[in-house]
């Protein structure tokens, strides 16, 4: 039964008339390759709510794909951006330097795991941070090989695509890809043999990595391993601690740099400022973006000072890298995250989501797995009889959520996983309303599909 809504307001059928008109224009003017998850045109956004051009209000469980952990338009961030906009918009850091760039580099060095001296370079996007981390690692080590992992995602540039491990839609017919890039197996705990404990499975996967170093690429050829401590696009796969620590130790023993891609896991999403802390590792380099600046385009590579200093002046950077609006926004976001302990809040949100979804799992055999770290939670749907990925069911649930006013995304190579990326400022009541709607959507789609519920 549909409950009355406190926050969501959707009326007159979706998409609304103004949205339909914009969709027509979008179709004519915007390249088809730019994918859209929903027919949604946003007019304004605040906290965890999105208001569309037709006057509908949605709860945002996608958070700009993990970009607004601090919420939409946090007042202090908006004020900082406005103040900066009145001063200057752009000089290019290579031409006219500015204090917020330096302050942000200092702050990131302080916040990221690792007790050694650190330095940073600021860039524009996640993919650009990955590109630069690879450049820096190669320059420092004098080696070319870069290892990434199955089901990993690192962006849409040439190196990003080369390191990414989902063919459609990210790589299909876009090759050839960058040479000297290799994929090693990443754990998928949901599919682990029943006879193995989580930690045993982690150790098993470490042994697979040891084999990989014999069969695919020798350590002497490898500049770096790049790993998402919890995989994002790949399905919110939380690897066993023994795996992450095991790979990190192998890297240390063999002179291979360890790059943590914390673009999706960073800034409180997993319950700590950076997921590397949870796994007990101190990466040589960390790539950061997304929730760093509440949606302004900025990213960073932060790491060991001696490694970061390997490239010579002029070999890193770019016209817009570390733009002043992004820097002041990032400094304001970090202040807010620390003041409001948004990492702690992430734990609470994550527990609520997992507990609600676990009780749904008892009801619906199609829910194969509920997993996550902090508020980086996901639910994997499978066909109850065969265990095969239930992509169509998930597409139906996501669509039903949208029609009821909740924006939520899928993940995984089969797109059979629903992932939660709610802003961490979401209130308990908003979260509750969103979870109620997701439960309704699951019930309805099961009913329509005639799928089993217990
Ligand atoms: C782990 C990870 N790395 C890299 C990227 C690429 O970031 P961007 O889309 O800003 O280029 C993403 C984006 O989703 C990501 O999740």
UniProtKB/TrEMBL annotation:
Q: Which Gene3D superfamilies match?
A: Aspartate Aminotransferase, domain 1, Type I PLP-dependent aspartate aminotransferase-like (Major domain)
Entries under InterPro entries matching the protein: 4NH2But_aminotransferase_bac, Aminotrans_3, Aminotrans_3_PPA_site, Class-III_PLP-dep_AT, PyrdxlP-dep_Trfase, PyrdxlP-dep_Trfase_major, PyrdxlP-dep_Trfase_small
| One example GO MF annotation | 4-aminobutyrate:2-oxoglutarate transaminase activity
Give the E.C. number(s). Answer: 2.6.1.19, 2.6.1.22
* Catalyses which reaction(s): 4-aminobutanoate + 2-oxoglutarate = succinate semialdehyde + L-glutamate; (S)-3-amino-2-methylpropanoate + 2-oxoglutarate = 2-methyl-3-oxopropanoate + L-glutamate
Among Pfam families, the record links this protein to: Aminotran_3
- Taxonomic superkingdom: Bacteria
Alphabetized SUPFAM superfamilies for the sequence: PLP-dependent transferases
- Protein's name according to its UniProt entry: (S)-3-amino-2-methylpropionate transaminase
* Phylogenetic placement of the source organism: Bacteria, Bacillati, Bacillota, Bacilli, Bacillales
